[in-house]
Structure formats: C-alpha cells, structure tokens
Amino acid sequence: MRKILFMTFRSLRESVFIFSVVFLALPIAAQSPLPEGEGKKVTERVCNQCHGPENYTRKKHSKSEWEAIVDDMVEKGAAGTDDEFDTIVRYLAKNFGKSTEKEMRASLLRH
Fold this sequence. Notes:
It is extended, with a radius of gyration of 23 Å. The protein has 6 helices and no strands. The protein is mainly α and 111 residues long. The protein folds into 2 domains: 1-31; 40-110, no CATH class. The chain has helices at 2-29, 40-47, 54-57, 63-75, 82-96, 101-110.
C-alpha cells in the first residue's frame, strides 16, 4: 500500500511539474508577432478584437490600400478614435506596406 501511495505521489509530482512547465511557457508562445514601433499597441488592441494579427501581418498594401481596409473595418464595427485609426494605418503601411512604383523607381535610381 505504501509503495502504491509513493508511486501515486510521484506521478502527481511529475504531472504538476509538466503542467508548470507548459503553463509557464504559454506567455512566451503568446508574444506578439508584430514589430515594435509607434502604433503597435493600438493596432493590437483595436484590430485583435475581431481577428488575429495573421490577417494583416501576411499582407502587403500601400498606405491608401490600408486606409481603405481600415475604413472597411470601421464600417464593420471596429471601435476606436479617428486618431487611433490614423495611427493604425501609419503603423500597417510602415511595417506591412508595399512600395509604390514611384518609390521603387527612386530606389533604383539611387543605386
């Protein structure tokens, strides 16, 4: 009987240890994939109310395209101020923007 109790206690200890390791690792796995910069926090707070960051981190849009997308999200119920939406557009255009044709030509001329 004593041996069974010891084995049960040992199994319980191992289970608690494994649970603790997994539980403590969750915050590391849940860290934001977004680059640091002005607008990151407001983008996470406003945009992630409805969807995850993968909806915008895998896309490249010009600033005017991001403006149209954010306007569409506002029409669908995204909650924020005009200043917050402007900040979000700037953040997305800077970090997930595509270069305009004019910017690409200017870059080529410099090199």
